[in-house]
Each structure stands twice: as C-alpha cells, then as structure tokens.
Write a structure and sequence with these properties.
The protein is of the alpha/beta class. It has 2 domains: 108 residues, Aspartate Aminotransferase, domain 1 (Alpha-Beta Complex), CATH 3.90.1150; 238 residues, Type I PLP-dependent aspartate aminotransferase-like (Major domain) (Aspartate Aminotransferase, domain 2), CATH 3.40.640. 37% of the residues lie in helices and 16% in strands. A 7-stranded mixed β-sheet has the order 2-10-9-8-5-3-4, sandwiched between helices. A 3-stranded antiparallel β-sheet has the order 11-14-13, covered by helices on one side. The C terminus is likely disordered.
Length: 375
C-alpha cells in the first residue's frame, strides 16, 4: 500500500491535489486549447519576472532544470566566448562542468559555501563575455545578491546568466532591473508544479544575436523560441500533462496572493523548522544572515549513535522525506521549506524527528519530550 509522503526537499515538491488532477486528461500537442495554454504560461512567467515582450521572451524547454541550464550555456555563448562562473556551492560547480563538456572556455571564482557571492568577487578576467551565478544555492540555502552582481556584470559589458531554480516564484525578483540576460528555473520548484520541463526568461536582443552559436539540436534555445513564436508548438514532443499541471499551479500561485504571499508562507515554514530543530539540538550550517527561507542545511548531531542513512529511512517511514547534504566541508542534511507545506506539516516533521532521535538512542536536550506515548 502506497503512503502519501511530505517532501521537505528542494524539488520535486509536495503538490496540491488540484495540480495533480489537472493531469487527468489528454490533449494533443497541436490542439488549439493546448497551444493557448502554452501561450498563457509564457505570458504569466514573464509577468512573474517583472518583464515583458518585446524586451524579454519566455522559452519553455523539455527536461529538468539542468537541461535548461545546458541549453542556455550551449546556445548563447559564441565559439570564441568565455564564461566566468561565480561559485559558492555544488550547483555553481555543475554550471562550470556543463560549460567545459560543451567546449566553452571557463574561468571560475570559487568562494566558501558559507559566504554569499558579491560584486567584489568579479575580479578582472580577460575576455569574459558571459557570467553565470546561482541565485539560491541549494547546497546550503544561501541567497546571492543578484541585483548587485547584475550591475557589476553590466558595467563589465558581459551578459548575465542566472540559475534561479530554487528561488523563482518565491523570492521577488525583477529580471530587467537586475540586468539579467538569461534566467533559468524549473516547473517543479516554487511555482509548485511537477517535473518535466524548465523555462528561460531571455532578453530578446541578446537571444536573437545567438544565431549559429548552438552546440546541440534538441537544446538549441534560439530554435526552440523561434518554433514557439512561429506556431506556438514545441519542436519536439512536449510534456503535455506536465504543462497542464503547471498552468494550474500558476493559477494557484495567483490565488494565494502571488510571490509575496507565497514567500510569507515559506518564511514561516523556515522559522518554525529552524526553531524546532534548534530545540532538538541541531545547528544550522549557515549563519542566519546568509540563510534564505527556501532550504536549510543542518549539521549532523555530535552523537555516536547518529547515522544519516538510518535517520533518513526512519523519517521516510513516518512519511517525511528530507534531503542529504551537499556541502564540501562538514556533514549536513537539508530540509526544504517550499511546496504545498504548511505549519501543521512542519509540526508533523518535527514530531517525526523527535521520535526518530529517541528511537536511535540519541540524547535529546534537557526538557525536550520524546513524543513517544507510554505503553
């Protein structure tokens, strides 16, 4: 018998019943209703980014967020171009890896995972044409100051590529005023859709100048946009059911009150989670001033009985799914605060953590109840 689980992860996320139900019908990829839905999705995403056509365009791309990152990197940087990647976590390192595999010249500036990237990290790098940075680095949950970075990149005469995978839809962001040329995010993050496609908000002037740059057929960003503009269709089979779910998710974001309201809910989830985990003896990896309300990394407790694998399994059996850590220094795990998660769900998670620690024989701080009823 399957058990419904709460996903305290950075995505895929717990989704609403109505988002899932939106996938319970079939539409052809050339059906007029489907094409209208695709068009509506593109317009709504531009509005969420506080940008609009003709200055910006929205391109939908099949696959995970990483597919869209690779689409941008392999499509918009010329053969004689050079990319600078500002790195403070695993996903910044992934950007650099993708660029190298695609034969793109790459420089990196790697700073500690506990510190945000700033404009000061944009040292002189000869020949740089593009700069890439992660907005919310879900390795730790740190949030990088995109507006400050964008202004510095613009002054340097380069183009800015932003991985906003885990922030778009929950952290207010004006793509135009942040001088972003290409913003990438995914359906299964803060907009609370399901996995299957990602999207790019691209400055139109920059995008149309990339003709002939693409290193891939299926990931050719310009060709994908031109196809959508020509007849509203994807060049290759689109994830029809996922797009139906995503449009429903967009409507539910609007009904909730938009990005500000969703941010407020996630922020309360974060505060309740951190307060509860501290009470149970856990310590966050980041200093609070650097921490976003998207996801939090917690250090392993200093107890010989603690095993993350067992901790994860026992929580999973209780219907609460967390995420392993990705920091390069220190043993951590991660708890996400996004998706269809509310205060009652956070209380359920904390109760599950408390009882799991008791079951594992891990000492709880004095005064903390075990949550285990007497037999």
């Amino acid at each position: 018998m399957s058990v419904t689980k709460l996903l305290f992860t950075p995505g895929p996320l717990t989704t609403s019943r109505t988002v899932k139900e939106a996938m319970l019908r079939d539409l052809g990829s050339r059906d007029g209703e489907f094409l209208a839905i695709v068009s509506d999705i593109r317009e709504r995403l531009l509005r969420l980014g506080c940008c609009s056509s003709p200055n910006y365009e929205c391109v939908l791309m099949q696959g995970s967020g990483t597919f869209a990152i690779e689409s941008v990197l392999s499509s918009v940087i010329p053969r004689d171009g050079k990319l600078l990647v500002l790195i403070n976590g695993a996903y910044g390192r992934r950007i650099a890896q993708i660029a190298r595999v695609n034969g793109i010249a790459v420089d990196v500036v790697e700073i500690p995972e506990t510190r945000e990237v700033t404009a000061r990290d944009l040292a002189v790098h000869p020949g740089i044409t593009h700069v890439a940075v992660v907005h919310c680095e879900t390795t730790t949950g740190i949030l990088n100051p995109i507006k400050e970075i964008g202004a510095a990149v613009s002054r340097a005469g380069a183009s800015l590529i932003v991985d906003a995978m885990s922030s778009f839809g929950a952290v207010p962001l004006n793509v135009a005023t942040c001088s972003i040329d290409y913003l990438v995010s995914s359906a299964n993050k803060c907009i609370e859709g399901v996995p299957g496609f990602a999207f790019v908000l691209a400055r139109r002037e920059a995008l149309v100048a990339t003709e002939g740059f693409a290193r891939s057929v299926s990931l050719d960003l310009l060709a994908q946009w031109m196809g959508l503009e020509k007849d509203g269709q994807f060049r290759f089979t689109p994830p029809t059911h996922v797009l139906l779910a995503f449009r429903q998710a967009l409507l539910e974001l609007e009904k909730e009150g938009g990005i500000e309201a969703r941010a407020a809910r996630y922020r309360e989830n974060y505060r309740a989670t951190v307060a509860g985990m501290r009470a149970l003896g856990f310590e966050e990896y980041l200093h609070p001033r650097h921490q976003s309300y998207i996801i939090t990394s917690f250090r392993y407790p200093d107890d010989p009985n603690f095993s993350f694998e067992e901790f994860y399994r026992r929580l999973n059996e209780k219907g609460c799914v967390i995420y392993p850590g990705k920091v390069s220094e220190g043993n951590c795990f991660r708890i996400g605060h996004i998706g269809q998660i509310f205060q009652s769900n956070v209380r359920d998670l904390l109760a599950a953590v408390r009882s799991t620690l008791y079951e594992m024989g891990i000492d709880l701080p004095q005064g903390v109840e075990t949550g285990i009823a007497d037999s």
